[in-house]
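ingest -> fold -> write
write: protein_1
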Amino acid sequence: MNSRRSSEPHADNRRLRALETHVDPPVAQGGDLRIHLVYPNSYWVAMSNLGFQAVYRLFSQAPGVVIERGFLPDHPYDSKVYDQRWRTFESSRPLADCDVLAFSLSFETDYPHLFRMLSNAGVLSLDPAARAQHADTEKFNAPIILAGGTSVTLNPEPVADVLDVIMLGEAEEWIGEFAATLRDARAAGLNRVDSLARLAAIEGVYVPQFYTPSYESSGLVKGFAHSSIPTLTSASTTPTDTANTPTVSECLPAPKARRRFVKDLSKFPTYSGILTPETEFRSMFLTETGRGCEMGCRFCVAGYIYRPVRKRSEESLTDTVKIGLEHSDAVGFVGASVSSHKAIAKLASQVAETGARASLSSLMSQKVNRVLAASLSESEYKTVALAPEAGSERLRRAAGKRVSNNQVVEAARDLAEAGIRGFKLYFIVGLPTETNQDLEALVSLANEVRSAVVEASRESGKAAWVVLSVNPFIPKANTPFQWEPMLSQTELNKKIAHIRAAIKRIPNIELHFEPPKESYFQALLSRGDRRVARLLYAAEQQGKDWKWLLQQGSERLAAEVPPIDFYAMRRFGFDEVLPWEIVDSRIDRRLLLREAMRAHHGEDYTLEAEGAEELAEIEEIQRPELATTRALVESSVRSDLSF
C-alpha cells in the first residue's frame, strides 16, 4: 500500500511550497472555473507521480481555469485530524469550495482514501440524484466530482456511485475540451444534469448516472441499461426546475463511453512540472518516453490499456531533457518499456556526458547491451531492476513474457561488469498454471543471477547484491488474466515461506514481498462491480480503513453485496458479463480470450468461433488446486446472498 507519510503536520504546507521549483510556472490569468486537483494520498506519494503532475500542468494552462492541489493529510483516520476540514495546498481553501473536485486515481488502494476525503469535505454520497439536487439548490459546497487515472480507466465501477464524471484514458487533449464545455454550460445557466449531459458528449467521458447495471440472482452482472441523456438546444439553456425532469428538446440513448488516447504523444511533452526533494525521486526531473508495452504480458495492465504502443520521438525527448538539465542534476526516463526505445542508450549517454545522472524506470533484459549498461554506470546508477516475473521459461511463456533465463542472466552480468552493484528482481507468485517446480526454478534463477553479478564484480572489491521482490498475482481488468482467480492468502503465504526457506542459506540475496492480504484487497477493487462502493461506504461510515474490510472477507457487509471472496477468488466465466464492460476500453474481448487460452494451450491456439460449445470447453479449464476453493465460493454465494 502507498502509505508513506511526511512527518510534518498538514499545516506545514508553507515549508513544502518553499522547497518547490516550478519548471513551468502556472500561467498567470484570471479564471471563472475553479478546480481542485486532489491526489488521495500524501504529498510525498502524489508529487512522485508523473501523471498527477502532468494533469496539474495541463489544467494550469487551460484558459479560464484556476487550479489548486489537495493531498491526504497525515493520520487521516485519527479523529482529531478528521474533525478538521481538509484544505487545498496553495491557499487553504476547503476542498469542496470549487466548481470541480478532481481526483487523480492511479492505484485502487487509494479508493478508501477517496471516500475518506469526500466524507471530510461533506460531499460523500452514493446517490447521484441527491448530489444533483443539492448542486441545483445550494450555492456552495456542491462541486462536480471528477476522477481519472489508470485504475478507473481499467475498471471505473467500484467508485462509480460517488463520482459524477470519470475520465477514461489519456487527458492531454481532453482537459481543454472539458474546461471549455463546463464553462459554456455554466455561462448558459444549465443545471447539474444538463451540464453532465454536455460533458458526456466528449469522447472519453463516462457519466455513471446515465448507465445502470443489473444483476442475476446468483450475483453475476446481468447487463447494463443505458439511460436517456438530455440533448440540449438553445431553448433549454436556462436553469430548470430541479423538482422536475430537466427541460430538454429531446432525449437520446447514452452511447457507450469510450477510452480516449493520444495518437501523437510527441505533441504533448510529459515531464515534471514541479521539482521537490520531498518525493521518492528527490529533485530528479522525470520525462515520459512513451506509453504501452510491446511485450503484452498476459497479467500486465500496461501492455493492454495503453494500446496502441506509442513512443515519443528522439527529437522531442532531446528537447525535454534539455529543459530538465536546466533545473536538475538527474533525469529519469519513465515508461512501461523504457529500454525498448531505440534512442534510450543515446539519450542516457547524453545526460551522463553533462555530469548529470540518468535513470531508467524499467529495463527489459533482452534490451540491455553494453552501451546502455555503460551509460547507466557513467550516471553513477546504483541499482537496476529486472523483471523475469517467473522462474521457469515455461511459466514465463504462459504469462506472455518472452525472455529466456539466459537473457536475464546475461543482462545482469553486463550491468555488473559496467559497474552496477545492486540488482532487484521482480517475481510474481500464484500465476495461472504455476507449479511447485516453477517455485524451485525461481530460486534457481535468482541464485544464477547472484552468482553472475558477484563474479563480475569481484575485481572491483565491491560485491554485488540481489533483492528478490516477490508479489502475489492479482487479476486485473482488461488483461487476458482478468478471468483467473487469485489464490487464497493461505496458499500464497505457503509459497512465500517456501521461497524464503530456500534462499535463506544463499549469501547476497534478500527477500522482499507484498503481504498477500494487501493483494487480496487490490483484487476486490480490480474486479469489483458498482456494488463494491457500498462496502467502501460502510467502512467509511464506521471510520474504518481497508484492513477492517479484509477481516470481513467471507461475510456480507452490505445488503445485496457479495462477500469479498466472490470478487477476488472466483474464476470468472468466459461467457460472463464483466463489470468493466459497461465502458468501451478499445480492447477486443476476443483478443483477451485468445491470449487467455494460449496461456493454457500454447501459442498456436486460435479462437475460431465464440460459440456455445467452445465456451463450454473453455470453462473446463480449471487449475486442480483451485477447484475446491471455487466450489466453496460458489456455495457461499448461493447460501449467503439473497438478490
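write: protein_2
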Amino acid sequence: MRGRGEYSAPDFPVNFDQVVPRSYAPAILSYYGARPIRIATWFWNPRQPAVTAPLDDADTPVPPQWSGLRRLLVFGFLLWIGIAATWMTLNHAGTRRLNAEIAGARGQLLFPEDFQVASVPDEENAAYFLRRAFENFHEEALSYDSTSWDELHEYPLTAKALESLRAYIRANQECLHLIHRARQCTRVDWKYAPRLGTSDAHRQMAEYMNIILRLNNLAQLLGEATSVQVASGNDAGAIASLRDALGMARAVHQGPFTMSHIVAISIEGNTASACIELAPGISGASPTPRPVTTAPILRSETQSLIAELLEENDRSLFAARALLCERAATISLLDPTPSSVFLSYNDGSGAKRDPPPPLVRKMLLPYTKLRTAEVFHLLTLSAEAEQDANWPTAKKRMPPPPVRPRMPGLPLTNWLPPPQYTFRSGQYKFQTAAVRRLAAVRLAIWLYQHDHSRLPPDLKSLVPDYLPFVPDDPYAASKQPLGYAAHANFPFIYSVWNNGADDVATGFVPVSKDQYSNRAPDLIFFLDLPAMKAAEKAANKQQK
C-alpha cells in the first residue's frame, strides 16, 4: 500500500527518449516481441504516471508526451504495411492468372514476335499500292454545290449527280488505278508489328490507323464509280470496281488489331449492299436507255465476283489472327521500360500520352496484370468464336465485354485496349456474312434472269450453273438456307437476322423501308427496290 507522495511504477520508463534513443526502436520491438500488443497500446495511448504530489506542487504542468505524433507514426506504419500486403497479394494473383491464360494459349500466336512476317517487295505488296492510293486520293474533288449527299448516293442517279460524280472520278483516276493494282497482288505486309510499348511503335500505330480508317473513303469512291459505270452501261467496269473493293477489304483483313477487321468487314458490307442495289440497273431496269456489255465478259466477271463473295475461310482466319495480334499487344504493355508510351484507346484517336513515372507504373503493375489477363481471356474467346458457323453459336462463346473501371481525374485506367471491340466485331462479322451471301444470291438470280427472262422458282434452281451451293443463313441456329420469297408482289431475299426466327414464313410482309433496316425483324433485300418504291409512291397518290 502506497503512502502519500509515492509514484506508481509504469510499465515503461517515463522519459523514454532519454533512457532509450529512438534509433533503438527496432531493438526494443525485437526485445519486447512477446508483448507487441502492450507496446502498440503504449505508443497509441501512453499512460501518464499516477502521481500523488504535495499540495504545493499541484499546479506544476505535466510535460507533453507527443501522443498525436506517435499516433500518426503508428497509423502511417500500419497503412504502409497494409498497402504493401495488398500490392503483393494482387501482384501474385495477377501473375498467376496471366500465367494461366498464357499457358492455356500455348501453341497459338502469342507474343508480338510471333507476328513478324518476311518483308514483301513493294511491287508484290497490296498494302504498298493501297498506301499510294491513299496518298493520291482527292476527296475535295467531290462538290456538293448543286447536289446533296443523298442525291449522290441514291440509285438511280439524277443528271446533276451523275455529272458531279464523273468529275470526281476523273480527278481520282490514279487512285482507282492503284486500288486495281493492289487487287492483283497476292501478298500483304503493312510494315507494322503489334507492339504498344515504345514511341516508335506509337508513331507507326498512328500512321497505320490513319490509313486504315481513311480506306473507307476509298471504298466509297469505288462505290460511286460503280454507280456511274452502271448508269453509263459499263457493266463489266462496274463488276470490276466491286471486285477491287473486295480485294481492298481482303488486304485490310490481314492487318493487325481488331480495328483492321472492323474496317474490312465494313468495306465488304458496303460492297455487298452495292451489288444488291445496283443489280436492277445491271439487269436492264435503269430508267434511261443505255448500252449493255456483252454477256461473255460480264458472265465471267460476275461469276468471279460471286465466288469472292462466298469465300469465307480466309476471312475467318484473318479475323482470328487480328484478335490474337491484339492479344499480343496487350502483353507488350507489361514491358517495364520506363520510356514506354501508352495509347489512349477510350476515344479511338491514338493520342500520345506522357509516360507515367516509374513509381506509378510499379504501383499499378498488379492492376495492369489483372486487366491484361481479363482482356487476354476475352480476346481468346473471341478468336475461337470467329471460327463458328453461325451467330447464335458464336454469341454463346463470346461473352459481353466487361465494364472498364474508371477513376475520375486519373486516366491510368485507359492504358489497356478496350475489349468492347471484340464483341462488336463479332456482330459485324456475321451481319456482313449475311449481306455478302445475299449479294451472291442476288447476282446469281440476275444471271438466271438474263438467261431465262424470268426469276428462278427457288434457290436450288441456281445450283450448280449460277451458284456453287445455296448459302446457309448465318443467323439461323440450325443449318438453314437463306430465304427467298419468289411469289411476293415484289420478290425479295432475306435472312432471319437477330431474333433467329423466320418472320416472313409466319406472315411478315415487308415494305420498301424495311430493306436493310434495324426496325424489320428479318434482313430484307428486294430484287427490284426502285420498282417497289415507284409502286408505293403511286399507291399513296391514289389514296390521297
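write: annotation protein_2
Residues 335 and 490 are 60 Å apart (CA to CA).
The chain is about 55% helix and 0% strand.
pipeline exit 0
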